[in-house]
Write a structure and sequence with these properties.
63% of the residues lie in helices and 0% in strands. It contains 8 helices and no strands.
């Protein structure tokens, strides 16, 4: 189990996973809509969650029917938490991590890292950029 896995489990309110296979199981079992409140408590704003994870109207529908998020929505929740954990580790604070995630970057085509998290490919690009920053290759 990595420190990032422990942090993500703690943030999202599930048992700390032993590894990626356990994370996959968490996603496949799908999150309760209440996990969105946990993302908001981490500092994300509703409009960001709307754009990257689930629209407010869809979320309200799921809550009213006592349905879980879809596997895809659950995967996006985990993706945001994973990238936020990496950004926080790189920048040393949640505030600086969120500021970086929200700022358009020339190297990303003047898009914010957060805007790329709608896809796994975009998330990999953001994580690669964070690794480069952490290693001093890119500022």
């Amino acid at each position: 189990m990595s420190a990032a896995h422990a942090q993500i489990g703690n943030w999202l309110g599930f048992q700390v996973p032993a590894g990626d296979r356990d994370l996959l199981s968490v996603v496949e079992n799908r999150f309760s809509p209440e996990v969105i409140n946990r993302l908001l408590k981490l500092g994300l704003v509703r409009a960001e969650v709307d754009k990257v994870v689930i629209a407010t109207r869809t979320l309200q529908h799921r809550r009213s029917r006592k349905e879980k998020l879809s596997v895809e929505e659950s995967d996006r929740v985990l993706r945001i938490a994973r990238v936020l954990a990496a950004a926080e580790a790189t920048y040393g604070s949640r505030e600086r991590a969120l500021e970086w995630l929200r700022t358009p970057i020339a190297r990303l085509g003047e898009r914010s890292p957060l805007s790329l998290l709608t896809t796994e490919t975009g998330a990999r690009i953001v994580e690669e950029t964070l690794t480069q920053i952490d290693e001093g290759m890119f500022v």
